[in-house]
Amino acid sequence: MNTLWLWLGFSLFVLVLLALDLGILHRFHYLKYGLSLVLMVVGGKMLLNAWFGAKVVPTEVALLITAALIGGTVNQPPTSGSRNRSRSTPLACRASDRAWRGAA
To answer: Would 39 be classed as within a structural domain?
Structure first.
Protein backbone atom coordinates (compact mmCIF):
# COMPACT_ATOMS: atom_id res chain seq x y z
CA MET A 1 0.00 0.00 0.00
CA ASN A 2 2.91 2.37 0.65
CA THR A 3 4.14 2.04 -2.92
CA LEU A 4 0.68 2.99 -4.18
CA TRP A 5 0.77 6.32 -2.29
CA LEU A 6 4.33 6.93 -3.44
CA TRP A 7 3.32 6.30 -7.06
CA LEU A 8 0.26 8.59 -6.76
CA GLY A 9 2.34 11.36 -5.23
CA PHE A 10 4.97 11.08 -7.94
CA SER A 11 2.30 11.08 -10.66
CA LEU A 12 0.69 14.18 -9.20
CA PHE A 13 4.06 15.90 -9.04
CA VAL A 14 4.75 15.09 -12.71
CA LEU A 15 1.31 16.37 -13.75
CA VAL A 16 1.88 19.63 -11.90
CA LEU A 17 5.24 20.07 -13.60
CA LEU A 18 3.64 19.39 -16.98
CA ALA A 19 0.94 21.96 -16.24
CA LEU A 20 3.62 24.51 -15.42
CA ASP A 21 5.58 23.66 -18.54
CA LEU A 22 2.61 23.76 -20.91
CA GLY A 23 1.46 27.14 -19.65
CA ILE A 24 -2.07 26.10 -18.78
CA LEU A 25 -2.09 27.69 -15.36
CA HIS A 26 -3.86 30.76 -16.75
CA ARG A 27 -6.93 28.55 -17.14
CA PHE A 28 -7.25 28.28 -13.35
CA HIS A 29 -8.15 31.96 -13.03
CA TYR A 30 -11.68 31.34 -11.67
CA LEU A 31 -10.89 28.21 -9.67
CA LYS A 32 -11.17 29.93 -6.28
CA TYR A 33 -14.73 31.01 -7.09
CA GLY A 34 -15.62 27.50 -8.22
CA LEU A 35 -14.19 26.00 -5.05
CA SER A 36 -16.19 28.41 -2.91
CA LEU A 37 -19.35 27.37 -4.76
CA VAL A 38 -18.45 23.71 -4.20
CA LEU A 39 -18.07 24.36 -0.47
CA MET A 40 -21.49 26.02 -0.46
CA VAL A 41 -23.05 23.04 -2.25
CA VAL A 42 -21.46 20.53 0.13
CA GLY A 43 -22.45 22.61 3.16
CA GLY A 44 -26.02 22.94 1.88
CA LYS A 45 -26.18 19.18 1.30
CA MET A 46 -24.98 18.52 4.83
CA LEU A 47 -27.47 20.98 6.32
CA LEU A 48 -30.40 19.54 4.36
CA ASN A 49 -29.52 15.97 5.26
CA ALA A 50 -29.08 16.90 8.93
CA TRP A 51 -32.27 18.97 9.04
CA PHE A 52 -34.50 16.24 7.64
CA GLY A 53 -32.61 13.39 9.30
CA ALA A 54 -32.42 11.40 6.10
CA LYS A 55 -30.51 11.37 2.84
CA VAL A 56 -32.43 14.10 0.99
CA VAL A 57 -29.72 14.99 -1.52
CA PRO A 58 -28.12 11.91 -3.09
CA THR A 59 -24.35 11.71 -3.21
CA GLU A 60 -24.37 11.26 -6.98
CA VAL A 61 -26.21 14.56 -7.47
CA ALA A 62 -23.75 16.41 -5.23
CA LEU A 63 -20.80 14.89 -7.10
CA LEU A 64 -22.34 15.82 -10.46
CA ILE A 65 -22.83 19.42 -9.33
CA THR A 66 -19.28 19.51 -7.96
CA ALA A 67 -17.79 18.19 -11.21
CA ALA A 68 -19.81 20.68 -13.27
CA LEU A 69 -18.72 23.61 -11.10
CA ILE A 70 -15.04 22.69 -11.12
CA GLY A 71 -15.04 21.84 -14.82
CA GLY A 72 -16.85 25.05 -15.69
CA THR A 73 -14.49 27.27 -13.78
CA VAL A 74 -11.22 25.63 -14.84
CA ASN A 75 -11.86 25.82 -18.58
CA GLN A 76 -12.70 29.52 -18.61
CA PRO A 77 -9.83 31.74 -19.76
CA PRO A 78 -9.36 35.15 -18.11
CA THR A 79 -11.85 37.67 -19.41
CA SER A 80 -10.12 40.90 -20.31
CA GLY A 81 -7.19 43.10 -19.52
CA SER A 82 -3.73 43.16 -20.98
CA ARG A 83 -2.33 42.00 -17.64
CA ASN A 84 -3.99 38.60 -17.96
CA ARG A 85 -3.07 38.20 -21.61
CA SER A 86 0.58 39.01 -21.01
CA ARG A 87 0.82 36.28 -18.39
CA SER A 88 -0.38 33.63 -20.80
CA THR A 89 2.22 34.43 -23.46
CA PRO A 90 5.81 33.29 -23.04
CA LEU A 91 8.39 35.91 -22.17
CA ALA A 92 10.24 35.50 -25.47
CA CYS A 93 7.09 36.30 -27.46
CA ARG A 94 6.17 39.52 -25.69
CA ALA A 95 6.39 42.67 -27.76
CA SER A 96 8.28 44.51 -25.03
CA ASP A 97 10.95 41.79 -24.97
CA ARG A 98 11.36 41.95 -28.76
CA ALA A 99 11.54 45.75 -28.68
CA TRP A 100 14.20 45.60 -25.96
CA ARG A 101 16.33 43.35 -28.13
CA GLY A 102 15.94 45.69 -31.07
CA ALA A 103 13.83 43.38 -33.24
CA ALA A 104 10.93 44.92 -35.10
So the answer is: yes
